[in-house]
Design goal:
Oligomer: heterodimer
Distance between the termini of chain B: 6 Å
Distance between the termini of chain A: 46 Å
Low-confidence stretches of chain A: 1-11
Helix content of chain A: 55-70%
Largest sheet of chain A: 5 strands, antiparallel
Number of strands of chain B: 5
Strand content of chain B: 25-35%
Radius of gyration of chain B: 13 Å
Largest interface: A-B, 39 and 34 residues
Radius of gyration of chain A: 20 Å
Low-confidence stretches of chain B: none
Order of helices and strands of chain A: HHHHHHHEEHEEEH
Chain lengths: 250, 117
C-alpha cells in the first residue's frame, strides 16, 4: 500500500525502516514490524508513510481503533494521503459501513485517478452496498460531505468529506455563503425568481449548494462519478434532514 | 472557430424550447463575446452575473481543495442559468425557463463548449 516517496528532508537510507517494517508485516511478524514502525515514528513523527505503515500493521492485527488513529494521523501529516484513505476505506468496508468506505475511496480516486486498485475497490464497495436510497446521512460527521452554514458564512455543522479538516470546512462555508448570495442576486435580477440550488461540476467533484431559507445553506459534496440526478436526489434528502436539524437547534 | 460560427452555435442552443438566450462570455471581465437571445433578456446583464458566479464558484472550489469547476447550474423558481467552460477565459452560458428540457440542454452545452476555441 505504501508506494509514495517521503518528502521530508531525509536520506533514503534513513527511511529504510519503512521497507523493513513492511517486509516484517508481510511475513506476519507484526510485533517486530510495529517496533520498527514506532521507532521510525520517534525519528520522523510527521512522516505520513510511517503512520500508514503502523496503521497497516494494526489493521492486520485486527486492532481497528489504533489503525484508524494512525491513518488519521497520516492524513494530518499529508492531506489526501492515498494509502491512509484506502486504509480507512478498508476498515469501513470491514465494518460494512459501505457509504463511508465509498466516500474514502472516492476521495482517494480524486488524488490518484489512475490507480486501478482504487477503482477496483470502488466497484467492490458499490456492488456490496445497498441501494442508494438506503444511504444514511449524518450531519455531524465531517466525512459525510454535508456542510451546513449560516448566512454569514459560519459553519453550523458538518464538513466537506473524508480527508478534510475543520479549517477546510470553515473556509468553504465562508466562500460558499458568498456564492449563495451571488446566486440569489443573479436570479432575482435576471427575473428567474428566488434561487433554489446551485450545482458545480469539476473533474474531481460534484457539489450542490441548496438554499434552506434566508438563514442557512447546505453544501453537498460527492465524487465526480456521481450521476447528476443522484446528486440532486441525495441533496434533496439531505436538505430535509438539515431543516429538521435547524428546527431542533433553534 | 470565429464569431459567425459561434452565433450559429448559439442559435442551436436557443432552438431548444424554453431557452431564452445563449451567449459566450469572457469570464475575466464579464463581457459578451457573442449572443443569441429573445427580446427582454439583457445578455450584458447575464454575462456580468455569470462571470461573477464563476469567480465565486472558483473561490469555493479552491477552499474545498477540488479542481476548478467546468460546469455551473443555478436553478431558481422561474428558470435556470447554465454555464459551461470552453477555452479559457470563455464560457458558454444559457438562460432557460421552467419549460426547458434541462437534460438535453446540459448535454448540448457540454458538446458545444468543447468546440468553443
Amino acid at each position: 500500500m505504501t508506494d509514495s516517496i517521503p518528502t521530508l528532508p531525509s536520506t533514503t537510507q534513513g527511511l529504510a525502516f519503512l521497507d523493513l517494517g513492511e517486509r516484517l508485516r508481510q511475513r506476519g511478524q507484526f510485533e517486530a514490524a510495529a517496533t520498527v514502525a514506532l521507532a521510525g515514528l520517534v525519528r520522523y513523527p510527521a512522516l505520513a508513510d510511517a503512520h500508514d505503515l503502523l496503521a497497516r500493521i494494526r489493521a492486520d492485527q485486527g486492532h481497528d481503533a489504533p489503525a484508524i488513529a494512525a491513518w488519521r494521523a497520516a492524513l494530518e501529516c499529508e492531506a489526501g494521503h492515498v494509502g491512509a484513505l484506502k486504509g480507512l476505506a478498508f476498515i469501513a468496508f470491514r465494518a460494512q459501513n459501505f457509504v463511508t468506505a465509498e466516500q474514502y475511496l472516492e476521495t482517494a480516486a480524486s488524488h490518484a485517478p489512475h490507480d486501478a486498485t482504487i477503482l477496483a475497490a470502488l466497484d467492490r464497495v458499490r456492488s456490496a452496498a445497498p441501494a442508494p436510497a438506503a444511504e444514511t446521512f449524518r450531519l455531524d460527521d465531517p466525512a459525510s460531505g454535508l456542510l451546513l452554514f449560516d448566512a454569514q458564512g459560519m459553519r453550523l455543522t458538518g464538513g466537506i468529506g473524508p480527508g478534510s479538516g475543520e479549517r477546510d470546512a470553515d473556509a468553504t462555508a465562508a466562500e460558499a455563503s458568498g456564492l449563495a448570495r451571488e446566486a440569489d442576486r443573479a436570479t432575482r435580477f435576471l427575473r428567474l425568481g428566488p434561487w433554489q440550488q446551485l450545482v458545480m461540476e469539476s473533474v474531481d467533484a460534484r457539489v450542490a449548494v441548496l438554499a434552506l431559507g434566508a438563514h442557512a445553506t447546505l453544501l453537498v459534496r460527492r465524487s465526480a462519478t456521481t450521476p447528476p440526478g443522484r446528486l440532486l436526489a441525495t441533496s434533496a434528502r439531505a436538505a430535509e434532514l438539515s431543516r429538521a436539524w435547524l428546527e431542533q437547534s433553534s | 472557430m470565429n464569431v459567425p460560427h459561434w452565433e450559429v452555435m448559439l442559435r442551436e442552443v436557443t432552438g431548444i424550447v424554453g431557452v431564452r438566450g445563449a451567449l459566450i462570455v469572457s469570464a475575466d471581465d464579464g463581457l459578451v463575446v457573442a449572443d443569441s437571445a429573445m427580446d427582454g433578456l439583457e445578455t450584458t446583464d447575464v454575462a456580468a452575473f455569470a462571470a461573477s458566479l464563476i469567480a465565486r464558484a472558483l473561490r469555493t472550489t479552491t477552499a474545498m481543495r477540488t479542481a476548478a469547476p467546468s460546469r455551473l447550474q443555478v436553478s431558481a423558481e422561474g428558470g435556470t442559468l447554465f454555464a459551461v467552460a470552453g477555452a479559457e477565459p470563455l464560457w458558454l452560458v444559457a438562460v432557460a425557463d421552467t419549460t426547458a428540457e434541462l437534460g438535453r440542454l446540459r448535454l448540448l452545452l457540454g458538446d458545444l463548449a468543447v468546440v468553443l476555441a
